[in-house]
Automatic annotation (TrEMBL):
UniProt protein name: C4-dicarboxylate-binding protein
Keywords: Signal
InterPro entries named in the record: DctP_fam, TRAP_DctP_sf
Keyword Electron transport: no
Pfam families found in the cross-reference section: DctP
UniProt source species: Escherichia coli
Gene Ontology BP terms: transmembrane transport
Amino acid sequence: MNNYLYGTRQIISKKPIRTVDDLAGLKIRVPNNVMQIKAIQAMGATPTPMPLGEVYPALTQGVIDGVENPISVLARAKTV
């Protein structure tokens, strides 16, 4: 199941993610949405809900390890 409102979703992180096992223990920013939170939990990562505007500072300060969103949304928001 996927939410196609803004297109397919991607995970961008500080370290390469080649398999779902690579997500274990990573703190991934998600929208405050139950579907995305549960999906990230199911993959073994720790979902960290926060507004999109807080992503860049959270990445640089180590609050999160990555972000889950469509790349088009991140580019428009100039987040990463």
